Amino acid sequence: MISVSEKITHSYCPMFSHFSATEFHELMKNSFGEACYCNDCSQPYGTSTLTKILNPELAVQVIEKSEKVTSVVSLLSHLKYPMDVITQERLKEILEMQEGVLADTHLFRIRILAIKCLLLNGPLNEMRNELLTLLEWVKNAWGPHFNEIAAIYMKLIHVNLSLRDFYSVNFFMGKLHHLKGINEGYP
After folding, report:
1. Cα 109 to Cα 32, 75, 133, 171, 172, distances in angstroms
2. Cα 77–78–83 angle (5° rounding)?
3. What is the DSSP letter of 84?
4. What is the CA radius of gyration of the chain?
5. Which tens digit of pLDDT belongs to each residue from 60-69?
6. Which tens digits make up the pLDDT trace of 69-93?
7. From CA 127, how far away is CA 162, in angstroms rounded?
8. What is the CA angle 40-8-168, rounded to 5?
């Protein structure tokens, strides 16, 4: 049952679109005009939910490397070129480099993990754990009814089917149907 207070969350910056962190921050400010006083727009870059930096000394290098990878993935995706240029190991290195430097809700942290989980395949148990982490990060950044969570639920269903974990398959199918029901406005 969907309660009246549940609403789907949309973002002006999907997980896979290519904006630099600075462009994203400006986009959010400009999308709503200078009169926007929401928590994210009113905070300086590096302090809002999607741009939070934990270690400013290391952040520039980490953001540059993250930006390069997301740029390559964006370009490959637009050209419909195979993603085999990007490896699971390289993405894992970047995620480890980001740890303690960028917050878990930082856009680049979410994007790199989303690329690793949703665009590439790896060992099933590792994928399941990383998908659950991605789900948590996305919910913390955009809320539990963010429309792009559907892709995470679908991948979790696929991975759990491969692992023959039918309880989890049913659980995430229920979550996916609930999310789609909210998106389509079912009572």
Report:
1. 25, 19, 11, 26, 23
2. 20
3. G
4. 17
5. 999 999 999 9
6. 988 888 887 788 888 888 999 999 9
7. 11
8. 110
